[in-house]
Structures are given as structure tokens and as C-alpha cells.
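quick one: magnesium ion bound model?
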Amino acid sequence: MSKLQALIFDVDGTLADTERDGHRVAFNRAFADAGLDWEWSVERYGELLAVTGGKERIQQYLTTDHPAFEPPGDRREWIAGLHKAKTAHYTQLIEENVVPLRPGVKRLLQEARDAGLRLAIATTTTPANVTALLQTALGADSLDWFEVIAAGDIVPAKKPAPDIYHYALNALQLEPTVCLAFEDSEAGLQSAKWANLQTVITVNGYTQAQDFTGAALVLDHLGEPTLPFQVLAGTANGATLFDLQLADYLQAQIP
Ligand code: XBP
Ligand code: MG
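yep, here:
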């Protein structure tokens, strides 16, 4: 049995609850800037999250909700421009600190750093969004905490495809058996599972009813000393917060 060597984190919904008050609001602001009367409600956005990736989400929304809409010029370029405006709004919102990190995230990252574990990120979101969140929530040097930041269009296929995890594992030069992934969604779990990673899920409002079959552990959040987590599926070996002892325990279950 090899020892745990790296933790690989998803960003949206896992490090922070960015979708409802971050991404959704930014999309709506970009639509308004473009003179479009489109407004993604909290509920509708939850449905649209079935498609990962912001550009892909806009494309899907056009197909289902505005099939007759003809963007000026090239459709792909127009979507890319709209998405660029969304990214600008999103990073501004994040820099205004509207979305805190989820419970236990900073604590676990610090514990992992102190123990010399390697850290990586595997996310669908645009790299600028990751930079804004990490620097705002964890400080200017926090990008350096992560040996690999695999994000956005760096791979051809977004989650649930495993490409982004393959990319991260390849950059780390590690086998999946010595890593643990952290995700919040079914698409994220699929992506990690197809890359043969054991995965810990922390659910959120948008993902709590999803199917997490095959996850190593499903929690409401990672927990803090004063805020114990709830185990929704799997066994946490009596722990009340997610620490490296629990990470080692889960990794030891890998056949
Ligand atoms: C997150 C996403 C992202 C964000 C928007 O998925 O689906 O698309 O909603 O980001 P995951 P961009 O947490 O599984 O990585 O607009 O920058 O694409
Ligand atoms: Mg996510």
C-alpha cells in the first residue's frame, strides 16, 4: 500500500459556493451589458449547471431557450465575447469577497501544506476565476501552494470527462492510487472516477440530490472543530472533521 501523496481539489462548489452568488450573477450582468433581457434565476441556473463550462452553458441555453436568436457575426466568437465579459464580472465579484471559502477548506489546505502533501486543482472554470478566488480568500502567495492548477480550456473535454484529472495527474507524475480528489457534484465525481481517483464529496444546495454512487465519502462540508460535518454516505471512521488522518484512512481503503 503506497502512502497518500497529493490532494486534488475542484473549485466551484467545493472550495467555495461560487455558483449561485458568483457565476450566476456574473452571467446576468454580462447579459445586461450586452443589452439582452436574459435573467438566470437561482432555480433555472440549477438546471443549467447540468452543462459544465460557462461558454458551453450559454450555448446550451441558446439552443433550448432562444432557438431563433441569431447572434451578430460568428456564433462561437460572440459566445466567447459574452463569456469574457462574464469572467470580468465574476473576478470583480470574487475580489469583493462575496463568496467565502467553505468550512474546513483553509484548515485542510494548511494541514496538508504543513505535512508536505502535494496540492493540485482540477476545475472546469476559467483560470482567471481560480486566481481571483485563491488570492482573495487565501492571500497573494496561495497560487504557489498548488503545484498544478489545471483549469478551463486546457483540455478538450470538460467534466464529466476525466481529461482535467488526467492532465493534473500527468503534471504531478503520480498514480491516482496515491491521491484523493475533492468534488461537490455528480459531473465532478464522474470525472474523478473515470480517472480512477478516490473522491470525497462535499455537497451544496445545487448538488445535494445528485447521485454520488462510488464516492469514498459524502459529507455536508469538511467540518471545523466547532462545526462538525455530517456524513451523508460512507464511513468517516468516527471523525467529525476532515483531516489528514481521515484522508489516510480513506486512501488505505483503495484496493
Ligand atoms: C464548474 C463549472 C463552471 C462554472 C463557470 O464546474 O461548471 O463552468 O460554472 O465557469 P466544476 P466558466 O466545479 O465541476 O469544475 O464560466 O469560467 O466556464
Ligand atoms: Mg464543482
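The mean pLDDT is 97.
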